[in-house]
Specification:
Keywords: Membrane, Transmembrane, Transmembrane helix. By secondary structure, the protein is mainly α. It has helices spanning 2-31, 36-40, 48-62, 72-87, 90-101, 107-134, 142-219. The protein contains seven helices and no strands.
Length: 220
């Protein structure tokens, strides 16, 4: 009985040690920073096209819908997206490369990099708006303003004359069209009236002949 109890105690100790080592290794793995290049399976000097192709290839394998029974795919897919988000942009990739080369610089590196990026962006914005300010035309003299005013008046007069000519041409065209239409309708009415009168006269003559023939048959 004592031997059996000692064996059971040894098994429990071994099981506890095994679980402890496994939990310790998992916690170390979680604390260890993930190398985005290794996660995507590319080199540190890979081009943007290589990074994009590697991301598409890996995302198909690690997508949660590919194996719903595996809950770890979601976290791996999130890490893969984060790696692609950082490495696909030039500024964030430079900051990440600097962090890899100087792992003990801490937040000071990112602070300086962010301040540099913000200052560079401010300089770019200032340069952008300076272009608009310098591109404005110089102040015109009184003679130039008078010439521009006359040119604008002349342009307005041309527009008005063109509009009036267009209205007159449309009026003449519609009058001509109305005259042609009225002539056509009058001719049509004349032809219809003539056909009607001819038909009426023909019916009257045929009726008279028929009545005459009926009377002749009665007198026979």
């Amino acid at each position: 009985m004592q031997v059996e109890a000692q064996l059971r105690l040894c098994q429990n100790c071994f099981w506890c040690c095994k679980n402890g080592w496994r939990m310790l290794s998992q916690s170390y793995a979680h604390r260890k920073p993930v190398n985005y290049y290794d996660l995507l399976g590319v080199k540190s000097d890979a081009t943007l096209e290589e990074i994009k192709n590697a991301f598409f290839h890996k995302s198909k394998k690690l997508h949660p819908d590919s194996d719903p029974s595996n809950p770890e795919l979601h976290s791996q897919f999130v890490k893969l997206n984060e790696a692609y988000r950082v490495l696909s942009k030039e500024l964030s990739r430079k900051e990440y490369d600097f962090k890899i080369r100087h792992p003990y610089s801490g937040g000071q590196v990112f602070g300086s990099a962010s301040s540099y990026a913000s200052s560079k962006s401010a300089q770019d914005n200032t340069h952008y708006w300076e272009q608009f300010r310098h591109s404005q035309p110089p102040e015109m003299t009184a003679e130039e303003r008078e010439q521009r005013r006359k040119r604008n008046y002349r342009l307005v007069a041309y527009c008005i004359v063109t509009m009036m000519l267009s209205i007159g041409a449309h009026a003449v065209f519609f009058r001509k069209l109305e005259k042609v239409h009225n002539n056509f309708m009058d001719e049509k009415d004349r032809v219809i009236t003539e056909i009607y009168n001819e038909s009426k006269e023909r019916a009257r003559i045929n009726g008279f002949k028929k009545q005459t023939e009926i009377l002749r048959q009665k007198h026979r």
